[in-house]
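Tutorial, part two.
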Amino acid sequence: MSFRPAIASGSVLPFPGRGTHAAGPDADALLPVLIVLHQETSTPGRVGNVLRALGHPLDIRRPRFGDPLPETLDRHAGAVFFGGPMSANDSDVYVRREIDWIEIALREQRPFLGICLGAQMLAKQLGAKVAPHLHGVTQIGYYPIRPTAAGNAACPDWPDHVYHWHREGFELPHGAALLAEGDDFPVQAFQSGHAFGFQFHPDVTYAMMHCWTTRGYDNMDSPGARARHQHFADRAVYDFAERAWLRQFIDGWLARTPRLILAEAAE
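Running the prediction step on this input gives:
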């Protein structure tokens, strides 16, 4: 089942300020954010750190290992689907269930964020094609992106290089707004209503980078992949801007939670 919110590509609303939250400064009153991970040892990384710093508890679930997903997001401030080594095209039951579940976030107009695999799942739910690069090119390391006018309108100060780890990309879903573009994989970020998809990985911490470049070392022989030492050299140059932008993005993304929901959580 595919749910397609009506949104014109040229009309992207900027993030509202956090002042629109009705729950007040009491961190205990804030709703949890649903976190969907795809490996036993995965963490929400920097995204989780930002959410905790903003006072939101994390409701971490791993459907691949039997965790159920909620039937509604009424008791959540939003949902984040993270990456993983699997494909949105895989026939595994949990993959199909996760893609189908995204319809709930879209229908209820709750903040949704898909990162890498999560973005590919969102794109697929919206009817877009997910596929490897025509010439087998990958993005593993830091690569440049270019925010569009719609991207700058939604959230300013985008980093010019971001961290990637993927072999597949996706088309721009029908009716979605392109927020950032790239070269080998043209669609790097998009928005459909309150849902956002990032092909890149703003969630990766320094420790995660060590883990990925060690366990996934064989992937660095892939066409287009950066050598392991280049990951860390580039991080020293580009990470500050990516980290600052992520905090700003998450803050505005959560401000899209309906005020009534936040007010009820504070009761």
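Residues 18-265 form a domain with the Rossmann fold fold (CATH 3.40.50.880). In part three we will examine how such features are distributed along the chain.
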